[in-house]
Amino acid sequence: MSSSSDVRERSIKEEVAMLASTLNDVQIRLQQVLTRLDAGEQVAETGESREEELEKELREAVNSAKWLRMQNAELEERLAQHKPELEQALSGREHLLRKLKHARKVIRDLLQERGDLSPRTQGFVTQEEIEEALDGDIRYDRDSESSSSSSSSEPPSDVDSDRTVRLTSAGVASPAQTFIGTPQVAHTSHLSPGPSAIRSDNGSIVSDPIRSPQTLIANQPASVSQRPSPNPSTSRSSPETWHIHFKKPPGSSILQEGPMDLAKLQICLRLDQDAVSKIVDAISPNC
């Protein structure tokens, strides 16, 4: 009897041990399942938070797109409102550029007509400075400039097209007008014929200004240089007298000013004595 009870007790203990081991395994598996459930919940929470962030960013992007559309529409409206003013400003700018180009061309032509009457002193600008100021930021079209300069060499037929500077308020003509021109003579009330006097084609007497710097000089405008060289097509020269003939009289020929005192002319043009001597030599019939 005792042996059978021992066997039964031993078997019961073994079954209890097996049950305990099984329960332990089940507990471990349950713990693993719980861990996995917790991890799944965390992933789900993370996904939800990420989804919320994405939805928030989407809403912000939609709002930004709406705001940008509104700004674009407002800018287009403002552009449409200012477009006439912009076109007017551009047109005015082009007009001012054309006027500036024309003014520079007129200044260039006047400088070419005036020539160099006196040596450069400290108070005068140099030719390089003049060219630099004229050429500035706008470059002339060389072809149009050459054609316009060649056409400007012909005598103008209209008074409005005359480009010669006239200082009418001071009674002073430009240097190119004062000393060289058509055979208009000085008033005889200011002149007295002498050994150095010369006689023009119409019989009027012109005094020699080299004898006295105070001699009154007639205003004789023309579109020629200070010391012109004889040209068979426009003029005839002789050892004593200049004979200038025009096919079309220039517009400056109707200007009646002078005679003018050489001293007053020297003051108005700020000429030094060397320049005055050169002018007198240039207009002298004996040179």
From TrEMBL:
Coiled-coil blocks: 44-113
Keywords of this entry: Coiled coil
Compositional bias ranges of the Low complexity kind: 146-158, 225-239
Region of interest called Disordered, as start-end residue ranges on this chain: 132-163, 186-254
Basic and acidic residues composition bias: residue spans: 136-145
Entry keyword Coiled coil: yes
Name of protein: Uncharacterized protein
Species assigned in the record: Gymnopilus dilepis
